[in-house]
Design a protein that fits this description.
The chain is 38% helix and 3% strand. The protein is mainly α. It has a domain of 127 residues: Cytochrome c-like domain (Cytochrome Bc1 Complex, Chain D, domain 2).
Amino acid sequence: MSSHKTPAVSILMTALLTACASTSDTAMAPTRGPNLGATPSAAMLAAMDISIPPSGAGLPAGSGNVAQGAKVYEAKCQTCHGPKGVGKPADPLVGGIGSLASGKPMRTVGSYWPYATTLFDYTRRAMPTTQPMSLTNDEVYAVTAYVLHLNGIVPESAVMNAQTLPQVKMPNRDGFIDYSKK
């Protein structure tokens, strides 16, 4: 670069910086917020609050059985969780009961999860991973029944719904400390 262009660049930069510095703060301040959303209404929040606690409070209407769940699982879950919940590429859902105290614990629905309602809640909001919240309530109840059956927790004749699901006793129900009761 020749030496005569350097002062021209310096003068131009100085002029730009001076113009920016002399601009009034009020002229730069936006007249309103960035319009990134709105405060949700109570109704909107209620519609989004689909959490299901261990007690099952708030479980929706619907039902599903093990046979129905097998069909839903094959169509919408098997690609990630493998045949009969054995895993690959996603984590296994089945097996590992009694393994948590071993040198090779296997954390699955059957071995680790303390409440069947948690399985329903997680499945409803997060599965399938490619289309979360796309399963109907009946499909979620059915898949829940199927996964619980694969783990030997409920019989093949089991029907899951808002009344029966909270009654399921998971193998690791007593394996957690409930600090809310302390």
